[in-house]
Amino acid sequence: MRVRSWSLCLCLLASACGGDGGDGGDTPDANAPTTPDAAAPDAMTDATPGGGTPDAALADAAAPDAMPDAAPDAMPDAQVIDAPPDAQVYPDPWWDDAFSSRLRIDLPDPDISDFLVDVPVLVVLDPSNVAYSRLQAEGADLRFVTDDSVELAHEIEHWSPGGNSYVWVRLPSIPRDGDSRFWLYYDNPEAEDVQAPSTVWSSDYLAVWHLAEQVDQGGTVGVHHDATGNGNQGTQYRNGFVGDSTGAIGGAQSFDGQDSRISIDGAGVIDSDDTMTITVRASVQGEPNDSPHALAAGSAEDQDLAGIYWQVFWRQDNQGWAGRLRAQNPMGNPGPVNESGGLTRGDWQVITLVYNGSGFLLYVDGARIEYSSLFGTIDPFTSVLTLGDNPDIDYAERDFEGFIDEVRISGAARSANWVHVQSLSLHQQLLDYGPRECRNGSCDILP
Questions:
Q1: Burial letters for 148-171: b for 16+ Cβ neighbours within 10 Å, e otherwise?
Q2: What are the counts of helices (DSSP H) followed by strands (DSSP E) for the chain?
Q3: How far apart are CA 362 and CA 354, in angstroms?
Q4: Is the pLDDT of residue 442 over 80?
Q5: Structurally, how many domains does the chain consist of?
Q6: Does 388 share its domain with 421?
Q7: What's the pLDDT at 114?
Q8: For the ranges 7-21, 119-133, 294-308, the one whose mean pLDDT is highest
Q9: Pairing state of beta strands 223-224 and 154-158?
């Protein structure tokens, strides 16, 4: 990427023009408002290929006779400073002068066929892409912004100054082809915290558990919060916290395969009667039985619960994930089972079950694995929803041994493109991060 400071350009201009001002055009107004380009689309603006300065801008900068005739004190105040390549500034309009640092976040073409809207994505911050010394202690000055100056709702799942911090950001859209981008602004000691988790997760989400609470293994008093604000809290029973060194997003819960689980009052979790999506991110560490359950609701023994029988579980016999979902119809108990196989125990996988009113689909890591015909309505939960075991603990040994990181329930039947993008995001493979940039050439270079 070619980046020039204004001082270098002025030197080139003086050399080429023999000190004459030339006809390079009007001097940019250093005090002009930094409004977005009127041609920018309402949604996210396509990123420049390669993540750098647009080619046209580089071409203009390279031609001495195209440089403006201006004294140094009249040049724009967003400058390149003498610093390593990870702390450069580009001449894009600056959103708010009160925030002195920013980071460009690129979303390369995700290879989807649908235009997605209101999409939560995971942003991972670390010392390679932000200067923690310029951030408030708990990240209160984080602001995520589109190219056309629309602020984006965000939720900090885990904050670790000097380490990895995990933030969920709701994008207004993701185009079906081409790159896009948005921005993180920070470095404002006066900014107030504007997190809005319930807005991040308001797009048909009924419950979202990040499971990053730092509860002690073996305890029974911990609470696992529902990020949607719908109040579907989980109760700890002998599960315990593990950090991101395990591959978790800010932290996960460990289940011992013997007697640990999280219980959630199922009543009210589901308010949709014909569509649903369940997403679980988990890692199997052991096989204490033939079908350890990461998520389960309903009871295999109770026919009164036939319409609310759901499971996400590991199959010991074929080393893969399986899902079962039952709707009220004449198909009989226990409903179709979709299965995967040939997976590696110990890896993190994203398992997604989708019911669209006429069929039931299983995805693993964004890839569609199996489809079963299924129809009928879904009843609201009247039993306990359990993570890490079967809710009817006396029926069969279904204890889960491993880590569960993220669990989501949505009242919408998510598309294959949505499932694909969410899998990339949960595996931290969706976004690229540009260089650190500063407003006035005064940013700290070192974290």
A1: beeebbbbbbbbebeebbbbbbbb
A2: 4, 24
A3: 7
A4: no
A5: 3
A6: no
A7: 92
A8: 119-133
A9: unpaired
pLDDT at 19: 40
Q: What is the mean pLDDT of residues 316-337?
A: 78
Instruction: Give residue 163's Cα distance to chain centre.
Output: 18
What sections of 158-231 are H helices per DSSP? 197-200
**Token representation of residue 421:** 């993008």
Residues whose CB falls within 8 Å of the CB of residue 29, separated by 6 or more in sequence, listed in order: none
* Both structure tokens of 167: 């933030």
In a domain, 35, yes or no: no
Looking at the structure, do residues 164 and 191 belong to the same domain, yes or no?
yes
pLDDT level of residue 259 (50, 70, 90 thresholds): very high
Q: What tokens were used for 363?
A: 């995805």
What confidence tens digit (pLDDT) does each residue in 357-381 have?
Answer: 889 999 999 999 999 988 888 766 6
- State in Å, rounded, how far the first CA of the chain is from the last one: 23
Burial (CB < 10 A; 0-12, 13-18, 19+), residue 317, is exposed
Examine the domain organization and report whether 398 and 447 are in the same domain: no
Q: Is the pTM of this model over 0.90?
A: no
Position 316 pLDDT exceeds 70: yes
Token representation of residue 176 = 């079906």
Res 164: pLDDT: 97
Residue 330 lies in a domain: yes
Under DSSP, the state recorded for 441 is S
| Strands 234-237 and 165-174, sheet pairing | unpaired
pLDDT of the residue at 32: 40
Cβ distance 345 to 323 under 8 Å? no
Contact 244, 251 (CB under 8 A): yes
| 51 contact partners, CB below 8 Å, separation of at least 6 | 1, 104, 106, 432, 434
How far is Cα 97 from Cα 185, in angstroms, rounded to an integer? 10
For the CA atoms of 341, 346, 352, 353, what is the dihedral angle to 10 degrees?
Answer: 60
Euclidean distance between CA atoms 295 and 305, whole angstroms: 16
Q: Say which amino acid occupies 37.
A: D
Domain residue limits at 2:
1-30+55-76
Same domain (yes/no): 108, 178:
yes
Longest CA span, the chain? 91
Query: Would you give the distance in Å from CA 391 to the centre of its chain?
Result: 30
Say which residue, 97 or 37, is predicted with more confidence: 97
Using one digit for the tens of pLDDT, what is the confidence trace for 181-232? 999 999 999 999 999 999 999 879 999 999 999 999 999 999 999 999 999 9
Q: Which of 319, 302, 413, 402 is nearest to 359 (CA)?
A: 413
Rounded Cα distance between 309 and 292, Å, is 16
Same domain, residue pair 307 and 349:
yes
Q: What is the pLDDT of residue 203?
A: 77
